[in-house]
């Protein structure tokens, strides 16, 4: 029972810790919050408010402040990335016009209109599009760890299909081209400007698949397999319970990892990614090593066999190499996805906890000899 309690505590503690990357650490806001802007050129008391994109805490305030002039303020957490709002005729990105804003490296705000002519960066052109923006109204500023993108449009009624986007972490457009990289995440909504009601049409077509790919591999190769190895090395006093716990953890981790690899292959096919060859090769190598570990179990010699020491050497060292490659590839995948410091910090913390646990168990084992 002590073994089950220990494994369960470690497992569920790590799950809780691993959810840290999914939570937003920046300042949050709601429609009941006071708008912290004082230099607006229009009456902010006229603004209606919509929680435009709840998972990312995007808040949209808008109003028809004068005849055929609509004022908008989009606020979002400041995460070292651009934020954007697009106006589409059909709910699609291609052909839409957008307003995008970000903080430059010197802390000054920069905002521009863009025409979304296609899905590649070269087809997204700055200072283009059919939005009629009132001169001098477009700006972005940072207040209390949030970005506030404000502008005014000349229109009888703005388009009701709105696109919201969050850029890749750590990247902002720069002169002279001000080109955009593909967004980290996006969603599409429709809004009724009279009532303020909106409905979500869709999110990024690949964001859920990308997140599933990452989470499955992290939990599988990067957490469960490691816990299973710790059980096998340090809990043999609970025989044969340790063996069944080891098998259960490694099998579950392998299945999670296999699911993650399948998601990754599907994601590569759908996005035509051309920069994941090393990540893919490492993933396949880890998968093959995992299969070899499973096959090794079937060829496991008896304890009294003269070949058992060779089998132990092979099984233990292939497992160690596989764990090192898995941790490295997970961090590399976070880098390729430009998922940001929250993912690196969250998984890094999990790895640190596992490392401290492993060192502590090794010290205890050495003292007990």
What does this entry look like structurally?
With 369 residues, the chain is an alpha+beta fold. 42% of the residues lie in helices and 22% in strands. The chain has 6 helices and 12 strands. The chain has helices at 2-18, 207-234, 241-271, 277-298, 308-337, 341-368; strands at residues 48-53, 58-66, 69-77, 83-88, 96-103, 109-116, 124-126, 139-143, 146-154, 161-166, 185-191, 198-203. Strands 7-6-5-4-10-11-12 form a 7-stranded antiparallel sheet, with no helix packed on it. Strands 1-2-3-9-8 form a 5-stranded antiparallel sheet, with no helix packed on it. A hairpin with a 2-residue loop joins strand 2 and strand 3 (69-77). The longest helix has 31 residues, at 241-271. It starts with a helix and ends with a helix.
């Amino acid at each position: 029972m002590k073994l089950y309690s220990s494994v369960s505590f470690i497992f569920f503690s790590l799950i809780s810790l691993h959810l840290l990357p999914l939570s937003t650490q920046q300042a949050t806001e709601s429609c009941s919050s006071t708008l912290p802007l004082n230099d607006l050129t229009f009456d902010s008391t006229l603004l209606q408010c919509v929680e435009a994109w709840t998972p990312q805490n995007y808040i949209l305030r808008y109003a028809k402040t004068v005849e055929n002039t609509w004022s908008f303020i989009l606020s979002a957490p400041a995460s070292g990335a651009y934020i954007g709002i697009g106006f589409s005729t059909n709910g699609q990105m291609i052909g839409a016009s957008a307003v995008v804003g970000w903080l430059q490296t010197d802390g000054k705000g920069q905002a521009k209109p863009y025409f979304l002519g296609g899905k590649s960066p070269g087809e997204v052109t700055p200072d283009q599009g059919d939005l009629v923006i009132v001169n001098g109204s477009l700006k972005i500023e940072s207040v209390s760890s949030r970005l506030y993108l404000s502008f005014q449009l000349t229109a009888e009624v703005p388009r009701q299909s709105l696109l919201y986007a969050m850029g890749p972490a750590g990247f902002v457009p720069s002169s002279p081209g001000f080109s955009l990289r593909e967004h980290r995440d996006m969603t599409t909504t429709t809004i009724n400007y009279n009532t303020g009601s909106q409905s979500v049409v869709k999110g990024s077509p690949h964001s859920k698949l990308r997140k599933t790919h990452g989470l499955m591999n992290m939990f599988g190769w990067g957490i469960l397999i490691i816990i299973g190895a710790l059980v096998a090395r340090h809990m043999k006093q609970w025989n044969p319970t340790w063996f069944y716990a080891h098998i259960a953890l490694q099998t579950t981790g392998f299945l999670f990892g296999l699911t993650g690899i399948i998601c990754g292959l599907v994601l590569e096919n759908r996005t035509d990614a051309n920069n994941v060859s090393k990540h893919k090769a490492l993933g396949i190598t880890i998968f093959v090593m995992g299969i070899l570990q499973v096959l090794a179990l079937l060829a496991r010699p008896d304890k009294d066999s003269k070949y058992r020491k060779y089998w132990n050497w092979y099984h233990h060292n292939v497992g160690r190499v596989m764990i090192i490659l898995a941790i490295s590839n997970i961090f590399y995948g976070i880098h390729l996805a430009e998922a940001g410091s929250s993912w690196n910090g969250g998984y890094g913390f999990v790895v640190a906890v596992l490392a401290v646990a492993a060192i502590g168990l090794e010290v205890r084992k050495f003292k007990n000899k």
